[in-house]
Structure formats: structure tokens, C-alpha cells
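Pilot study result, target chain (191 residues):
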Amino acid sequence: MEAQAQGLLETEPLQGRDEDAVTSADFSSMLSEEEKEELKAELVQLEDEITTLRQVLSAKERHLVEIKQKLGMNLMNELKQNFSKSWHDMQTTTAYKKTHETLSHAGQKATAAFSNVGTAISKKFGDMRNSPTFKSFEERVETTVTSLKTKVGGTNPNGGSFEEVLSSTAHASAQSLAGGSPRTKEEELQC
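Predicted structure:
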């Protein structure tokens, strides 16, 4: 008998299938007429209270909207405030702080790496500019520019056209590169 009593007095909450069994059971035959009348009265009273509470809630919601309108608060402002608060809350999380620190550190390393690359490139250009090959090229360019200035500037009494000056300078540069003897001005003008 004790085993049967334990089965009737379970302490576990009702599960879905247990609730279905309870709702499908007909307890009205177990209740007296007086108990049925009391439960019906209680049911009517609860329904009335629920209706009243819904009406009160609706009135309070209308009042809330009126107050917000008077304060100039609208849906967009509320969304902005909620977004700002959410953004602030997210920024204060540990995960955000760790991610921010990691990305910041990575950015600093990348900046240092780019700076080192820039310094290395500048150093290479400086080394290249001081090399004998570059100095030789620079001297040839200076010689060509000086020659052009002299010919265009006019030590020649006849002056000469720009094409003649350009052609003679090109021939002079070609001769100096080839190692040949320089031509006279008449030979340069005939080209």
C-alpha cells in the first residue's frame, strides 16, 4: 500500500503529457454542486479582474504615449538612445576590450613594419644615388643640359633652331657614350 501512496504523491512537476491527461480528465463528477458553484463564481470574478487589468494597462499605455509626446520623445529618439546604450554596453564587455587591444596592437606592429620598409627603401635609394653608375649617369645628364643651355642660350651668332640644337646634343651624347671623338659644330649642324 505504501508503494501506491508514493506513486500518488509525486514531487516532480507535471510534464507535457501529464498536463494533457489532467485537462482531458473530467473532475466535475468528483465535485459537489456547492463546490461547482463556488468555482464558477471564482471564474467569473477572475475574468472580470483580467478585463479590468487590461483596461487599466491600456489607459496607462495611452498616458505614457502622451507624456512622451509632451517631452518630445518619439520612436526615433528611443531607438537612438537604445542603440547608444547598447553600443556603450558592448564596449564595456571584456570580449570587446580584448579584441580592441589585439587590433590596436596589430595596427601598431603594422605601422612599425611599414615605417621600417619606408626607411629601408629610402636607404637603398640613398645608396644607389651614391653609386658610381648613378654618378656617371648624373654627370652625363648635366653635360647634356649644359650643352642644351649653351646652344639654346646662344653663343652661336646665328642662333640655330631648336631642332638643330636638339639633334646636335643628341649626337654629342651618343658620341660621348660611344667613346668617339666629338664633332665640330659644322658637322653637328649637318646632321
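One observation from the pilot: The first helix runs from residue 2 to 8. A full batch analysis is planned for the follow-on phase.
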